[in-house]
From TrEMBL:
It comes from the Bacteria. Homodimer. It comes from Thermosinus carboxydivorans Nor1. This is Chromosome partition protein Smc. ATP binds at P32, N33, G34, S35, G36, K37, S38, N39. Required for chromosome condensation and partitioning. It is found in: Cytoplasm. Belongs to the SMC family.
């Protein structure tokens, strides 16, 4: 499964609608300090359902919304879409292309969509858990994460291995089942 495209609107420094297309193989994003490289990975994590805003280098939910600049007024909404190539059928949906969208307003209300149909955050998590790219997964490894792995206690380090081995989703389901 390939992340084919990222679409941003009003997310952090991306006030204009921006599309980033990813080809097969490795993509490198280069640019001067502060030009928005890390904001791109933040956008991917955010659209995958990240709930902890500090993991996205913010303090409040609305910190992901374009805050304005000298020449431009702040925006009221941020939206990020991830377009996955699903021709291999990895995601259990009968579509060759699957788009996951998250939108947030200044009020703090979030909306989620799968192929433009409104859904719950839970639906996004369940869809992604199955393929191991859920919110707590190792899909995006930031600089701080590398330090975390190196400094982790044995118990914490075990969680990284469980995640990589795909065990986390079963633990999650067990917890859910026990709660019912
Ligand atoms: P470095 O090379 O230093 O890691 P970078 O390319 O990763 O830089 P980012 O951290 O992605 O840069 O971008 C930081 C920029 O994003 C800053 O200029 C910051 O003001 C801007 N920014 C972050 N949040 C917002 C927001 N909500 N509205 C407008 N701009 C924002
Ligand atoms: Mg950076």
């Amino acid at each position: 499964m390939l992340l084919r495209k990222l679409e941003l609107y009003g997310f952090k420094s991306f006030a204009d609608k921006t599309e980033v297309e990813f080809g097969p193989g490795i993509t490198a994003i280069v640019g001067p300090n502060g030009s928005g490289k890390s904001n791109i990975t933040d956008a991917i994590r955010w659209a995958l359902g990240e709930q902890n805003i500090r993991n996205l280098r913010g303090a409040k939910v609305e910190d992901v919304i374009f805050a304005g600049s000298a020449k431009r007024r702040p925006l009221g909404v941020a939206e990020v879409s991830l377009v996955f190539d699903n021709s291999s059928g990895t995601l259990p949906l009968d579509f060759n292309e699957v788009t996951i969208t998250r939108r947030v307003y200044r009020s703090g209300d979030s909306e989620y969509y799968i192929n433009k149909a409104p859904c719950r955050l839970k639906d996004i998590h369940e869809l992604l858990f199955d393929v191991g790219i859920g919110r707590d997964s190792l899909t995006v490894i930031g600089q701080n994460k590398i330090d975390e792995v190196l400094n982790a206690k044995a118990e914490e380090r075990r969680l990284f291995f469980e995640e990589a081995a795909g065990i986390t989703k079963y633990k999650h389901r067990k917890r859910e089942a026990l709660r019912k």
